[in-house]
Design goal:
binds heme C; Cytochrome C; 162 residues; Four Helix Bundle (Hemerythrin (Met), subunit A); mainly alpha
């Protein structure tokens, strides 16, 4: 009886030790994954804004050329970038203010569906004003967005093909 008890105790001791080793190995993996995750490249707020600036500009030339397919594409690029900021920069207080450009983007969407160049122009002006309203709200009033005059993209044709 005593022998059986001692045997059970020994088996119990070993399996308990094995469990401890397993937990330690898992903890080490979690630690190294956390270090890797912290080092993963994540675009900053300013990187996303650079992309927004490009699509804001391209959207204008698409609209001016009544290239509604391209204009639609550019609006969606802007919306996707906004979603990316909300996802990757959720801890920045400025992110909560981003929604202020949604109503003008909705209005641009409507102008694209209606192929309405006049509505496109007024909605685009509202969008540009919203960019600046937010920059003022985040104390970046020195960052002034304007309606572009000439396309900086000499390698892209904004005219529709059909
Ligand atoms: C949340 C409100 C907000 C809105 C809306 C917004 N911005 Fe910004 N923008 C910022 C912030 C914050 C920065 C500074 C980012 C940083 O920390 O680097 C910035 C920076 C910029 C920059 C400077 C980037 C550079 O490197 O020069 C440009 C250009 C820009 N925004 C364009 C726009 C355009 C175009 C729109 C509208 C389509 C817009 N922004 C709408 C908040 C906003």
């Amino acid at each position: 009886m005593r022998q059986i008890f001692l045997m059970l105790l020994t088996v119990g001791f070993f399996s308990c030790n094995q469990q401890k080793d397993h937990t330690k190995a898992l903890q080490n993996r979690i630690d190294s994954l956390e270090i890797k995750l912290a080092d993963t490249y994540k675009p900053g707020f300013g990187d996303f804004m650079g992309s927004i600036q490009a699509h804001h500009s391209k959207l204008w030339f698409a609209g001016q050329n009544e290239n509604w397919k391209l204009a639609d594409f550019e609006v969606h690029e802007l919306l996707e970038t906004i979603e990316d900021i909300e996802k990757f920069q959720s801890d920045r207080t400025e992110t909560a203010l981003l929604s202020m450009i949604i109503p003008p983007l909705d209005s641009i969407n409507k102008s694209i569906q209606q192929k309405n160049a006049a509505l496109f122009k007024t909605s685009y002006t509202s969008l540009t004003n919203a960019c600046n309203t937010c920059h003022q709200a985040v104390e970046m009033e020195f960052n002034v967005v304007t309606i572009p005059e000439t396309s900086p993209y000499t390698n892209q044709d904004f005219k529709p093909i059909d």
